[in-house]
Automatic annotation (TrEMBL):
UniProt keyword terms in alphabetical order: DNA-binding, Transcription, Transcription regulation
Organism whose genome encodes this protein: Geobacter argillaceus
A GO MF label: DNA binding
PANTHER family, per database record: TRANSCRIPTIONAL REGULATOR, MARR, TRANSCRIPTIONAL REPRESSOR OF EMRAB OPERON
Taxonomic placement: Bacteria, Pseudomonadati, Thermodesulfobacteriota, Desulfuromonadia, Geobacterales
A Pfam family of this chain: MarR
Span of domain HTH marR-type: 7-139
Protein name: DNA-binding MarR family transcriptional regulator
PROSITE patterns according to UniProt: HTH_MARR_1 (PS01117), HTH_MARR_2 (PS50995)
Length: 168
């Protein structure tokens, strides 16, 4: 195979990314009991509270329906509250509860936050190189037409399976 050392380096870097995401997600669950996306939502809410679901979804790069599911679970855990806007009663705003504020103060950085900060520090040329390389990788794997599953769904399924094994 041409460029075997280069191919090995690419595969090693892909493994490193997967390993980081996996280990970081496990750490977040272990330390907070939340999935990465749930913690990310709480951190965004802490920065912008009160915040509308549409604004939260935009800041998390997720579909609003996905964010509503995250908020539902956080509300059940007593970490966030929903209230009607005083200026427009049709609007629901999300805020942290005292328990949510405490959790945010003690929680680790979320994977998405680390990634977004890192990507935000790169030049447009570098971002275009990364995007181009990832597009080629997606093509090599033949998954161009596969809709991306939000990380939130993958992490929550993993957490649910882990909880089920502990009970059973």
């Amino acid at each position: 195979m041409p460029n075997d050392p280069m191919v090995a380096e690419i595969l090693d870097n892909i493994r490193r990314v997967f390993q980081f995401v996996n280990e970081h997600s496990k750490r977040v669950v272990r330390e907070t009991g939340l999935t990465g996306p749930q913690l990310w939502a709480i951190k965004v809410i802490a920065e912008r509270a009160p915040i509308r679901v549409s604004e939260l979804a935009k800041r998390m790069y997720l579909h609003p329906a996905t964010v509503v599911g995250i908020i539902d679970r956080l509300e059940v855990q007593g970490l966030v509250s929903r209230t009607r806007s005083r200026t427009d009663r049709r609007v629901v705003e999300i805020d942290l509860t005292p328990q949510g504020i405490t959790l945010v103060a003690e929680a680790p950085e979320v994977f998405q936050g680390v990634l977004l900060k890192g990507l935000g520090s790169l030049s447009m040329d570098t971002l275009q190189e990364i995007a181009g390389g990832l597009d080629k990788l997606v093509t090599i794997l033949g998954v161009q037409e596969t809709p991306p599953v939000p990380i939130v769904l993958v992490e929550e399924r993993t957490l649910a399976k882990a909880k089920g094994k502990r009970r059973g």
